TrEMBL record:
Annotated source species: Nocardioides cavernaquae
Lineage: Bacteria, Bacillati, Actinomycetota, Actinomycetes, Propionibacteriales
Protein name stated in the entry: DNA-binding protein
UniProt keyword annotations, A-Z: DNA-binding
Database matches in NCBIfam families: excise (TIGR01764)
Pfam families to which the protein is assigned, alphabetical: HTH_17
Highest taxon of source: Bacteria
GO MF, one annotated term: DNA binding
Keyword DNA-binding: yes
Segments forming domain Helix-turn-helix: 11-59
InterPro entries: HTH_17, SinI_DNA-bd
Amino acid sequence: MDEKYEVPPVVYTVEEAARALRMSRDRVYELIRSGRLRTLKEGRLRLVPISALGEYVETASGGDAA
């Protein structure tokens, strides 16, 4: 059995989240500090759940994100 398959991510690093949102890393950190973007912390690593990106976009768009 071939074990080579892609597992879709459930969390992004801050840098990956910034690319996904088409924002700068600094802007994403501002959203995190303000509480507008939910994250989790594992040791020193800050991770952004992919679901949090959708929540942010929906909130930022007034709730009518497609």
